[in-house]
Each structure stands twice: as C-alpha cells, then as structure tokens.
Amino acid sequence: MKKTKYDKLTAKYQKDLMKSLQEFVSIDSTYDEKSVSEKDPFGVGVSRALCYIYDLASKDKFEVANYDNKIVEISYGSGKKNLTIMAHADVVPAGTGWDEPPFKMVEKKGVLYGRGVADDKGPLLAAYYALKSLRDNGDLGGYKIRFLVGGNEERGSLCMEHYFKTLKKEQPTLGFSPDSDFPLIYAEKGIINFEVSKKIKIPGLISIKGGTASNAVIEKCEVKFELNSDFLNFIMDKYHRNEAAIKTADDITTVSFLGKAAHGALPELGVNAGLLAISAIADYTKNPMFVQLKKLYTALDGTGFKCGGNSYDMGHNSSNVGLVSYDGETLSLTCNFRYVDTCSRDKLIATIKEVNKPFTVKILGESPLLFYSKECSLIKTLLESYRLETGDYRHEPLAIGGGTYAKEADNVVAFGMQFPGWESNMHSPGESVRKEDLFKGMAVYARAIIDLGKLLKDEN
Predict the structure, then answer these.
(1) Cβ atoms of 147 and 64 closer than 8 Å
(2) CA distances from residue 73 to 19, 361, 434 in whole angstroms, order as listed
(3) pLDDT per residue over 415-459, tens digit each?
(4) Span 275-306, pLDDT tens digits
C-alpha cells in the first residue's frame, strides 16, 4: 500500500516518538503502595510518569494541567463540542522472565521491548504525536481537543473517577482510547473484582504468597510449610521441576509453584501458579476450605462458582485468580471476574456471595459492561479511518474481555493500537510492539482525529 497523506505528515515525528518512548519506558510507573501519599496518590513512579507527560506537552506549547498527580489534561482549541483521547501512564508490575531489563526499551529486528511499549505508553505517544502533527500543520479547529493521561488504569481507574466525578469535568462528545486492539472495540465485558477470605489454621502451613495484580495470571506462588518429609514427597511425586521448585532451610520447606503470566482477561493463555498452590494444599491436607477453593476456582469460565455465561457477541465469562495469600491466620483469594451481556450483574454478585460461604466476600471494585451498536456514527467513523489508512477491510470490530478507559466516560471506545496478527504480550514478560506498527498507529490516529472532528463540525 502506498504511503498515505497521514503517513507523510507524521513521518517527521518518528524520531521524537522513539526518543520520548525510550525515556517514558525508563520510568517505573507501577502502582507503589509504599510511596503512596497525598502528593503521590498512586506512588512516586506514577507521579513521575505523569510529570513527564506534563513537561513534554508544556515544552510543545500545549495547554496542560496536572490534577493532583492523578491525571494530566492536555488541551487544544475551543468549542462547545469536544474530542477526547484517553490513555494511561501507569503499567502493571514487570514480573519475571524478561530477557532484557523491563524498564529499558530495547530494539531487536524492528521490534521494541519494554514494560509499557504496548500498554499503554507506546500507543499514548503515538496518539500524542498524531495530535501534535495535526496541530503543527494547522489542521485543527472548530472544536476542543482533550488528551487525558491517567495514572490508575491498571488498578481501577480512580484517575478518571477523580476527573469526571470529583472535578466534574464535562463528558466527551466523541472520543477514543488507544488501549486495546485494531480495528476497534465495540463491546467490553463487565468486570467484578472481589476478595474471599476466612480465618483458618492449617497444621504445618506457615504462609502463602502469590500474585502482583488481580488482572494478571499468577506467575509464581510461594508456599512455606514446616519441614515434613511426607509433604516433600507429595510435592516431588505430583509436580515436575518446571511446576514447583523446592528449598529447605531452618526447618522450613519453601515450595515455589511456577506458572505462566498472562492478562487476566484471557486466563486460558497462562498457567496460574496460585491455583497450582491451592490444588496442592487441598490434595495434601484435605482441608475443606482449600478443597472448596479448588472446586470453585479451577474452572476459568466462572462455572465453578455457578457464574458461567455465554453471548453471541462477547463469548463467555472468565475468572482469574490474581492474588492468593495466607499469613498463618487468614486465607484470602482475589478474583478478577468478567461477564458477558447475557448476565445480570446483581444476580452474579448474589451468587458469588452465596456460593463462597463460609468465606466472607468483599467486592473490591467494578467496571460496567460496555456495548455500542456497530451502526453508530462513532464506530462507523473510526472503522473507516482505520480501513482507509491501513487498507485492511478484512478484520471486523471486536468484543473483548479486557476493560479499558472507554468504560469510564461517555461516547468513547477503545481504538488500537495492537494490530491484527501481532501478540504484544501485554501484562507478560517480553511486552513488545513493532516499530512499523507504532508509526502506522500515528498515522491512523491522525486520520481518526480529523474524521471525528468533521463529525463534530457536522453536528454543530
């Protein structure tokens, strides 16, 4: 396919994009509970990342505001209607298994590696430089553009809640979030994050610790048990070395159950080390509480706790155990549960609470189900922008299990930036993006901004 008008327009910003992404990735913007304060509500690293974007946009002479180190607003133009772009500066924890340092962008054969290159720092900057290219070329006018960069997307989107509910900023007239897949997302599953817990005492069991975030498959789960030859023999007989690593010291056996990381929206793509640990303890101790958890959560579609569901558009429900812990007194498990449009949210919550008894259930957070008609102007316009820019008329709009910023505002859908045929390993070791996709994404976003802008002008 020949270079488009927008390929040529954005080409001069490719070096700036690469330089900025290298600097941006080097900031570990994982939520850090230890450094959370009134000044840094999501931790020092997230604040640094938001300040980086603030400084970048200020240097480029945009109007910029930093709202309490929760969200940065970049603005251009004026008008009653607004076009809003929503992206995030925070990332999930790096985890283990990287070939290179996760917070150092590395290029190999045209592929960029590093935590955040695909989710969401690379797409964020592609959209930012698309906007800058249009501004510099004098192509914008007649409506207001807001580029919102949040710091808490991976942990509940408290950033956008602050912006729209606490600060009471106006909702988007039209918009998109560069935080998923191309061509675009017209439907997203509802999400319920919940914790089940119970005080319990297991003879010999000292502790369990597994997981870094509810929306990621547990890669490693560590179990400490009083030194016991029967327990050692049980583990060695039942598990291979690549599933469980054993160490003994000071009369304590430490078993590290080893899984495979994956995004919590697609738990079937990973191997959950937390579930391996629960299953092992249930089989060894026969304790009814562990046996119950094994029965309820081994199935990855919610059927274990009677919350299965299927939909023509959205597929099936999914269940991901993202955190498991036991401190010698309290056993707890955190589940990231996603449901389709044929399910009732209220019935699901009632069932979760009932089926998990005698465990106490605490709802930690929710994200509503999102569903747009494929015939609405927002979907049709963005799809046409993508097709005209890429020549890809084969792939259709998607329904996904992932939750994006699109749920946090009106009239917004997720739009790229993962292209069909590429697996970016979001939330996993080796997260990556093709450099050519990053540059093409810039052009797609530039065209989309213009096309949505025309729609806003027509409405005026």
Answers:
(1) no
(2) 22, 37, 28
(3) 999 999 999 998 889 999 999 999 999 999 999 999 999 999 876
(4) 999 999 999 999 999 999 999 999 999 999 99
User: Percentage of the chain with pLDDT > 90?
Assistant: 89
DSSP letter string, 16-36: HHHHHHHHHHTS--B--GGG-
Ramachandran region of residue 283, left (φ > 0), alpha (ψ -120 to 50) or beta? alpha
Q: Are the CB atoms for 175 and 453 separated by under 8 Å?
A: no
Tokens standing for residue 246: 């054993």
Would you say residue 460 has pLDDT above 60?
no
pLDDT in the model for residue 454: 95
Domain 5-189+370-459 matching CATH 1.20.1740.10: the answer reads no
Count, residues in the chain: 460
Q: How far apart are CA 407 and CA 405, in angstroms?
A: 5
Cα–Cα distance for residue pair 165/167, rounded to 1 Å? 6
* Cα distance between the two ends of the chain: 35
Q: Do domains 5-189+370-459 and 190-367 have the same CATH topology?
A: no
Long-range contacts of 276-279 (CB under 8 A, 24+ apart): 276/221, 276/239, 276/243, 276/244, 277/208, 277/210, 277/221, 277/223, 277/324, 278/321, 278/324, 278/333
Secondary structure letter of residue 317 according to DSSP: -
Q: Return the H-helix or E-strand segment holding 186.
A: strand 185-188
Structure tokens belonging to residue 299: 């199935």
Report pLDDT digits (tens) over 126-169.
999 999 999 999 999 989 999 999 999 998 899 999 999 999 99
Candidates 188, 184, 187; CA nearest to 396 is 184
Domain chopping of the chain, boundaries: 5-189+370-459, 190-367
pLDDT score at 263: 87
What share of the chain in percent tops pLDDT 70?
A: 100
Q: Are 309 and 339 in contact (CB under 8 A)?
A: yes
Q: What is the CATH number of domain 190-367?
A: 3.30.70.360
What does the alpha-carbon distance between residue 397 and residue 183 come to, in Å, rounded to a whole number?
A: 6
pLDDT band at 41 (very low <50, low <70, confident <90, very high): very high
Q: CA 283, CA 17: separation in Å to the nearest integer?
A: 53
Q: Which residues pair with 56 in a beta bridge?
A: none
